[in-house]
């Protein structure tokens, strides 16, 4: 009867859920740290306020949020924001936003993921024209020219986007697919 313990099943399920929740927490806290750089007061920083709201929606403890905000005041963290442009399967445009402490490592990981899914990195500015930049209270890239793709190519793009989002440094992935 080895391996059939009720406790073992609970431990395995809880461990997987905790790992997933920890990844979400670290992404949200990194976004808070980067947003707090310009102004650590959420009353005057819309981007920080939005990041804190999103963290609270995902049940991030208030103590962790405060620690991420105050971390910027001491300048202990050397995280930087990256906006990467790429072309996915079928020529779909991708904008990948990441927060990382090692841009070389992140770029190499993203290049490998793109290569594995028949996508390629694009030079800066070659994809942004297809999107309206983030502005005001909206912090997401909106496609100017939505692209229609066949179902197989859409599926390939979906797998690529899912793998990119699973990468720990990636915050958001935007595409121009309808």
UniProtKB/TrEMBL annotation:
Alphabetic keyword roster: Transcription, Transcription regulation
Pfam families in the cross-refs: TACO1_YebC_N, Transcrip_reg
Keyword NAD annotated: no
Domain (TACO1/YebC-like second and third) ranges: 80-132
Keyword Membrane recorded: no
Domain TACO1/YebC-like N-terminal: 5-74
Family: Belongs to the TACO1 family.
Stated name of the protein: Transcriptional regulator
């Amino acid at each position: 009867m080895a391996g059939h313990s009720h406790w073992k099943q609970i431990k395995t399920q809880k461990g997987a859920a905790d790992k997933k929740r920890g990844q979400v927490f670290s992404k949200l806290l990194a976004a808070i740290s980067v947003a707090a750089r310009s102004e650590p007061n959420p009353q005057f920083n819309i981007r920080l306020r939005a990041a804190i709201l999103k963290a609270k929606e995902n049940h991030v403890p208030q103590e962790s949020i405060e620690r991420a905000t105050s971390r910027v005041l001491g300048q202990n963290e050397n995280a930087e924001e990256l906006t990467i442009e790429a072309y996915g399967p079928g020529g779909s445009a991708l904008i990948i936003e990441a927060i990382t402490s090692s841009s070389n490592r992140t770029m190499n990981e993203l290049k490998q993921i793109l290569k594995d899914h028949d996508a390629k990195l694009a030079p800066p500015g070659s994809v942004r024209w297809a999107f309206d930049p983030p502005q005001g209270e909206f912090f997401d890239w909106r496609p100017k020219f939505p692209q229609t793709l066949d179902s197989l190519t859409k599926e390939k793009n979906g797998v690529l986007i899912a793998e990119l989002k699973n990468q720990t440094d990636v915050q958001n992935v935007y595409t121009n697919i309808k």
